[in-house]
Design a protein that fits this description.
It is elongated, with a radius of gyration of 22 Å. The chain is α+β, with helices and mostly antiparallel strands. It has helices at residues 3-15, 21-28, 76-80, 95-102, 172-183, 189-210, 213-228, 235-253, 256-276, 286-297, 301-318, and strands spanning 33-34, 36-41, 47-52, 56-59, 64-70, 84-89, 115-117, 123-125, 130-142, 145-157, 165-167, 170-171. A seven-stranded antiparallel β-sheet has the order 3-2-6-9-10-5-4. It has a three-stranded antiparallel β-sheet with strand order 1-11-12.
Length: 319
C-alpha cells in the first residue's frame, strides 16, 4: 500500500461519523478467515449445526476458543440451551458442506453427512481438518451477536488437506482457480460479456422490485466514488470502487444464490482489471452508470438493463 493510499484510508476513518453496514461488511472480508461448521446437540437429542467464519482462539491456559452467532439465527436458542458444542474446521474439499450448513433452505443439514458423536456427545463431522469439542465456558451479548466461549475438552486431527479459506466474499480455492483462468485467457470475452449481461440484467430487474431507498443510495454512492477518482489514484482504489458498484447492485437484488454468483463474477472482474486490462479513469462511462442508477430509481428494469448493456459494450470497445 502506498503512502497516498494510506492517507485516503486514514482520512476516511477520521471524518466519517457513521459506519455504513454494507461497506463495513465488505472491508471485514479483507481479512481471510478459515471456515468451520459449529455443531451441538439440541434438547430433543437431534444434531444441529451451522457454518461460521467467526471462530477464534482465546486462551491457552485454560484452552479457550470462541465463535459468534447472530441473534437472528434460528439456532441461537439451541446453542444458548446447550452445555457443549464442537468446532469442525473444514478442508478446501468441503466447500459444498460449508454451503449446506449455511443454507436456510435445507431443513436437515445432517442428511447424507458422515458424522459421529464425540466424547461429550457433540456431532463431529468426518474428514475435517481438525475438531474441537468444548464445554460452554461463557456466553456474552455483543450487539446483534452472541459470543460463545468454549473450553476445549477433546480435540482431534483429520485429513491432511489445506484449509478452506474465505476471503472477500469467495472461497480462496475458487478465487485461485478463477485467477488462473483469467490470467491464462481461458475465459473468453464474449462469454464473459454474456454472463455479465444475463446475471446483472436479472439482478437489476430484481433490484427494481425489491431494493430499498438506502440500497439505491449505496449504488449511487459507489458511482459517485468512481467519478471522484483522479488519474493518479492507485489502480487498487479504482478496482475497489468499480467492484463496489456491482456489489451494491447484487445486494439490492435480494437473492442469495444470485449474490453468490455475482461474487464470482466480481472476482473475475477484479482479476481482469488487475492482470489483463488495467485501465485508467473512464469519464466516458460516467453517464452510463448514472443511467443505470436512474433506471433503478424509476423502477424501470428495461432502462437499467439497457444502460448496463451499453456500459458493457463501451467497455469492450475501448479495452
Amino acid at each position: 500500500m502506498t503512502d497516498a493510499t494510506c492517507a485516503v484510508a486514514v482520512e476516511s476513518t477520521t471524518h466519517n461519523s457513521t459506519i455504513d453496514p454494507l461497506l463495513f461488511r465488505q472491508l471485514l472480508g479483507c481479512f481471510p478467515t478459515g471456515v468451520a461448521v459449529i455443531t451441538t446437540t439440541a434438547a430433543n437429542g437431534q444434531p444441529a449445526g451451522l457454518t461460521c467464519n467467526s471462530f477464534s482462539s482465546v486462551s491457552l491456559e485454560p484452552p479457550l476458543v470462541l465463535f459468534s452467532l447472530r441473534k437472528a439465527s434460528s439456532l441461537v436458542s439451541t446453542f444458548a440451551g446447550a452445555e457443549a458444542f464442537a468446532i469442525n474446521i473444514l478442508s478446501q474439499q468441503q466447500g459444498a458442506l460449508s454451503g449446506r450448513f449455511a443454507s436456510s433452505k435445507i431443513t436437515d443439514k445432517f442428511q447424507g453427512v458422515a458424522w459421529r458423536k464425540g466424547p461429550l456427545g457433540m456431532p463431529i463431522i468426518d474428514d475435517c481438518l481438525v475438531s474441537f469439542e468444548c464445554s460452554v465456558f461463557a456466553r456474552h451479548e455483543a450487539g446483534d451477536h452472541d459470543i460463545f466461549i468454549g473450553e476445549v475438552k477433546h480435540m482431534g486431527q483429520g485429513c491432511a488437506d489445506q484449509a478452506l479459506v474465505y476471503y472477500k466474499g469467495a472461497y480462496r480455492m475458487l478465487a485461485q482457480s478463477l485467477r488462473t483462468l483469467v490470467v491464462q485467457g481461458q475465459l473468453g470475452s464474449d462469454d464473459l460479456d454474456e454472463a455479465y449481461r444475463t446475471l446483472y440484467g436479472t439482478l437489476l430487474r430484481l433490484a427494481c422490485e425489491r431494493s430499498t431507498e438506502a440500497e439505491l443510495d449505496a449504488i449511487e454512492l459507489a458511482a459517485d466514488t468512481i467519478e471522484r477518482h483522479g488519474p493518479d489514484d492507485a489502480l487498487a482504489l479504482r478496482i475497489d470502487s468499480a467492484t463496489r458498484f456491482f456489489s451494491a447492485i447484487a445486494v439490492a437484488g435480494h437473492n442469495e444464490a444470485l449474490t453468490l454468483m455475482a461474487q464470482t463474477m466480481i472476482a473475475v472482474l477484479r482479476e481482469r482489471m488487475t492482470h489483463v486490462i488495467p485501465a485508467g479513469p473512464r469519464p466516458d462511462l460516467f453517464a452510463l452508470r448514472r443511467k443505470i442508477v436512474q433506471g433503478l430509481r424509476h423502477r424501470d428494469p428495461h432502462g437499467a438493463a439497457s444502460a448496463l448493456d451499453d456500459l458493457i459494450t463501451q467497455l469492450r470497445e475501448q479495452a
